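Is this the right way to post structure tokens for a design question? Let me know if I should format differently. Anyway, here goes:
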């Protein structure tokens, strides 16, 4: 399942500096950011290999994650909060604020074969409740 944590941040009267360091198992190979996404749903996939780290460097958004066993919604609403996604994590980003900029770091280069667009099957409720 995805992990939410605070990035190391150094603050002083001159401002704040937040560090991405030793977050992704294979290092950082790709960086991109999503913006102008109000009223949109982004993502809608999981991966074969790619681990991704997400942080809203401006504004906020929500991230729905389903790893096939558990589902959770994460709020990314501060530039020092980072969501680490495992390849198995189906994810959808939504509810972007007006000024949201979502930064994504990946440990893999883009490869269309790494994307899985099939959701996990819906869980059937156990007859024993």
């Amino acid at each position: 399942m995805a992990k939410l944590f605070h990035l190391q941040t150094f603050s002083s009267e001159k401002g704040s500096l937040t560090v991405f360091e030793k977050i992704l198992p294979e290092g950082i190979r790709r960086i991109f950011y999503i913006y102008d996404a109000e009223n949109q749903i982004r993502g809608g996939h999981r991966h074969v290999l790619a681990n991704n780290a997400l942080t809203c460097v401006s504004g906020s958004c929500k991230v729905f994650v389903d790893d096939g066993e558990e589902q959770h919604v994460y709020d990314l609403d501060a530039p020092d909060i980072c969501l680490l996604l495992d390849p198995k994590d189906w994810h959808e980003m939504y509810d972007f604020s007006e000024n949201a900029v979502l930064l994504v770091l990946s440990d893999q280069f883009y490869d269309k074969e790494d994307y899985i667009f099939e959701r996990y099957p819906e869980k059937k409720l156990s007859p024993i409740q």
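Format looks fine. Someone answered above. Worth noting: The chain has a mean pLDDT of 94. DSSP finds no helices and twelve strands in the chain.
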